[in-house]
Design brief:
Elements lengths: L12 H12 L15 E7 L6 E7 L2 E2 L2 E5 L10 H8 L2 E6 L2 E9 L2 H14 L2 H8 L6 E6 L3
Amino acid sequence: MPLHGEYEPSSQQWVRDQVEAYESSGGTEGTTLLDTGMPVVIVTHRGVASGKLRKTPLMRVEHDGVYALVASQGGAPAHPHWYANLVADPHIELQDGSARRDRVVRQLEGDERARWWERAVAAYPPYADYQERTDRVIPVLVAELTGD
């Protein structure tokens, strides 16, 4: 079931610009993180406090049609805000290029997290450095098709 509601753009200009470029082009522009050349997806989720729709560009980590969402925040000491939103309401929309699909997220633990962490680091090597910068274990979630 698609997400509905009022969209509230990010307070960060680069996020607003990236989401606008990605969506206005149908997923043909704004598909890489800033100047890294590394691919991103756009995750639409509901804000836990506001109830409004939020859109977040995240690194593209995909395996067999399932996507990992890594709450790294560059190795900051606290989780990113979007992480709390997904824990509170795991229903999201994920756009990868021109393809948009409803998905549900779940947090990984143990061996499953370790496998997906390896995939995430392979897709975006700075994740390993981010984990070294922080005392928290960086959460890894997967976004799977809802079956709707």
